[in-house]
């Protein structure tokens, strides 16, 4: 029997198509002050 899917989550980003992984990670570290994306580290 197939499993029942209760929730589908769609995630999108406003980053330009030219954004690099390093550029995105740098933004989260330097501008937002986060250790890693998904964690909040207030200044």
- The secondary-structure element order is H
Helicity level, as a percent range?
Answer: 25-40%
Structural class computed from helices and strand pairing:
mainly alpha
Main beta sheet, described?
A: none
Oligomer class: single chain
Q: What radius of gyration results from the CA coordinates? A: 16 Å
Task: Report the span from N to C terminus.
Answer: 50 Å
Number of helices: 1
Choose one word for the global shape. elongated
Task: Estimate the mean pLDDT confidence.
Answer: 82
Could you give the count of β-strands? 0
Strand content: under 5%
Low-confidence stretches: none
What is the topology?
Blueprint: H1 21-31
Describe the structure.
The longest helix is centred in the middle third of the chain and has 11 residues, at 21-31. This protein has one helix at 21-31. The N and C termini lie far apart (50 Å). Helices cover 26% and strands 0% of the residues. The mean pLDDT is 82. By secondary structure, the protein is mainly alpha-helical.
What's this, in brief?
This protein is mostly helical and 43 residues long. The protein contains 1 helix and no strands.
Key descriptive features of the protein:
43 residues, mainly alpha
């Amino acid at each position: 029997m197939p499993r029942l899917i209760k929730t589908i989550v769609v995630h999108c980003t406003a980053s330009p198509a030219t954004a690099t992984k390093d550029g995105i990670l740098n933004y989260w570290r330097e501008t937002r002050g986060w250790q890693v994306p998904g964690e909040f580290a207030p200044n």
